[in-house]
Amino acid sequence: MRTSNPIFSRWGAARDAGPADAYAYRPVGATVGGRPTDDYATNPYAPGADSSPRTDGTAATMDDVIIRTGTTLGTVALAAVLSWLVLPVDEANIGRSYGIAMDAALVAFVLSMIQAFKRTPSPALILGYAAFEGVFLGVLSSTISTYIAPGVVVQAVLGTFAVSAGVLVAYRMRWIRVTQRFTGFVAAAATGFLLLLVTDLLFSAFGAGNGLGFHSGGLGILFGVIGILLGAAFLALDFKQVEDAVAYGAPREEAWLAAFGLTMTLVWIYLEVLRVLATFNSDN
Fold first, then answer.
1. Could you give the CA distance from residue 33 to residue 38 in angstroms, rounded to a whole number?
2. Quick check: 183 and 237 in contact, CB under 8 A?
């Protein structure tokens, strides 16, 4: 089962020794020979003649994923707090601080792309991405809190936790079922969303003022809510990928990819929640 997350798609991709269709989608719950068909039975993650999952202590566990995700998110949070404190956004310094934040965002993007195309996870790259992403988020959040909506950052953090907890409960209760149709719908919706976002940026850059109107009013709030829903869908895909990888013996080092993917999704959700709250508060 692949996900729309560019990092998590690695967790289901066939590797050098695996057959081309080893990870082809099959309905959730389908079995072959009494075993689930969306497992790792025929891939390089399952060593041995019987192609059974790893039992030698080298497989990733849920604890591995939780610890690495906590480390990565903690790095984002620490960098965000430090940048909030040391990069002032008053009228005299906002230009410099915002320039640093944009540079940090660019570095974070480059690091994420390097990791996305690497064959193995690199903790240094992942934590570097988290640190630079945190700098960007810290300055952006401070600016919005100072000039648009005081107190909105705490609300955005709580909103991100609420969305994440809600998706986790819904996933664990099987109210959300990650199927091929679900995955395809999310991919199509995300493509349309990103195309609209790029078009809006182009309109704004070439003098169309407020672009397509996604930055204010009811349309801006609606666009942000759609972004939050897409983030929630990404999170469900990520939960499915983690569940499958842990259950069927992905190597321990791949827990770093889980942390990376989850962090990217949670940052997406936070930014969209922040956008909705800032738009709502600015309109009032």
1. 13
2. yes
Query: Alpha-carbon distance 178 to 171, whole Å?
Result: 9
Cβ atoms < 10 Å from Cβ of 30? 9
Rounded Cα gap, residues 27 and 65, in angstroms: 25
Q: What secondary structure letter does DSSP report for 122? A: -
What's the pLDDT at 112? 93
**Collapsing DSSP states into helix, strand and coil, what is residue 32?**
strand
Query: Where in 76-134 does DSSP place strands (E)?
Result: none
Alpha-carbon span 240 to 261, nearest angstrom: 12
Mean pLDDT, contiguous 10-residue spans, the chain (284 residues): 46 38 35 40 46 62 93 97 93 90 95 90 95 96 90 94 96 90 90 84 66 68 91 94 86 90 95 91 66
Full DSSP string of 194-229: HHHHHHHHHHHHTT-SSTTSTTSHHHHHHHHHHHHH
Give pLDDT, residue 34.
Answer: 38
What pLDDT is attached to residue 30? 39
What local confidence, expressed as pLDDT, does residue 55 receive? 53
Q: Which secondary structure element, helix H or strand E, spans residue 92, and what is its range? A: none
Q: Is 109 exposed, middle or buried (0-12, 13-18, 19+ CB in 10 A)?
A: middle
- φ and ψ of 164, to 5 deg: -65, -45
Sign of CA dihedral 135, 4, 72, 128: negative
Measured distance CA(163)–CA(157) in Å, rounded: 10
Is residue 76 helix, strand or coil?
helix
| Side chain identity at residue 88, one-letter code | P
